[in-house]
Design brief:
With about 270 residues, this protein is α+β, with helices and mostly antiparallel strands. Among the domains are: about 110-170 and about 260-270, Thrombin, subunit H (Beta Barrel); about 175-255, Beta Barrel (Thrombin, subunit H). Helices cover about 40% and strands about 35% of the residues. It has two helices and twelve strands, in the order ααββββββββββββ. It has helices at about 5-25, 30-110, and strands at about 110-125, 130-135, 145-150, 150-160, 165-170, 175-185, 185-195, 200-205, 215-220, 230-240, 245-255, 260-270. The strands form two sheets. Strands 1-2-5-4-3-12 form a six-stranded antiparallel beta barrel. Helix 1 crosses helix 2 (about 30-110). The longest helix has about 80 residues, at about 30-110. The radius of gyration is 42 Å and the shape is elongated. The relative contact order is 0.12. The model is unreliable at about 270-274 (pLDDT under 50).
Length: about 270
């Protein structure tokens, strides 16, 4: 017999017993029967009461679990919102710092007319890895002009539209800038080129030119239309190759194109400057 059928049968037995007790309640036989019946029914009633209490507790636990799950989902959504807000605050802080640095550079370099802009996009479809900025011909930007960030060379203008321009980052493998390494023992001329790993290499250094780790590398002003003295990076390693009589040096760049938000284009020498 199944559990459900047994329960129904037991209930019927209890009902019949209750009716019989009601009939015999005021008789001596009824009292004896009532006592016997209660002795039999007590364990059953206790079991039924325990089962009912267990079912109620199970329902309460299920309700608490559902409430906890709802609360957990709400907390997860709140965490996502807080992380998004924190990221936005951090991005705004970085942009404000970059804008302040650009303003400080402009104040300290009054001999140049600078146009401040933002990086509006990146194009890494080809090997050039160009940056798109929100300043163009209408702002005085022309092809070949130097682009700086935080006072250091970031690249050159490659193409221009009326309201935007493409910038070739100095770290591009297609970039080449005439430069000079400045050290305690003298200077060493060379060409700064981008490598395939996003770094910089100073090439075509004369074998006897003074060069050491830590030397500052700046633009030489020879060719390319760049002003002299724009910081590029520092020497972190010097090496030679058997197939080349010239030496080379690995540089730590001062500007990372992937981190650029705010840039400045050197559009011309300011009026009255030497």
């Amino acid at each position: 017999m199944r559990g459900g059928q047994r329960s129904v049968l037991l209930l019927l037995v209890l009902v019949v017993a209750a009716v019989a007790l009601a009939v015999l309640r005021n008789t001596q036989a009824g009292s004896a029967a009532q006592g016997a019946t209660l002795a039999v029914v007590a364990p059953v009633r206790s079991a039924l009461s325990g089962a009912a209490s267990g079912a109620a507790a199970a329902l309460a636990d299920a309700q608490r679990f559902d409430d906890l799950r709802t609360e957990n989902e709400s907390l997860r959504a709140e965490v996502v919102e807080l992380r998004s807000a924190a990221a936005g605050i951090q991005a705004t802080r970085r942009e404000n710092e970059a804008l302040r640095a650009a303003l400080d550079y402009q104040r300290a370099n009054t001999e140049w007319s600078l146009v401040t802009g933002r990086v509006a996009g990146r194009d890494s479809v080809d090997a050039l890895d160009t940056l798109v900025i929100d300043r163009g011909a209408a702002d005085g930007v022309r092809v070949g002009m130097a682009v700086v960030a935080n006072g250091s060379l970031a690249g050159r203008v490659l193409a221009v539209t009326t309201t935007s321009a493409d910038v070739l980052p100095i770290q591009s493998s297609q970039s080449a800038v005439n430069a000079v390494a400045q050290g305690e023992d003298g200077t060493a001329d060379g060409i700064v080129e981008g490598d395939d790993n996003g770094g910089l290499v100073l090439t075509r250094i004369e074998p006897d030119a003074p060069l050491a780790i830590g030397d500052l590398v700046v633009t030489s002003g020879l060719g390319g239309g760049f002003p002299r003295g724009l910081p590029i990076g520092r020497v972190i390693a010097v090496f030679t190759t058997p197939e080349n009589v010239f030496r080379e040096a690995a540089l730590e760049p001062f500007v990372r194109s992937e981190r650029l938000d705010v840039i400045q284009v050197i559009v011309e020498r300011a009026p009255g400057s030497p």
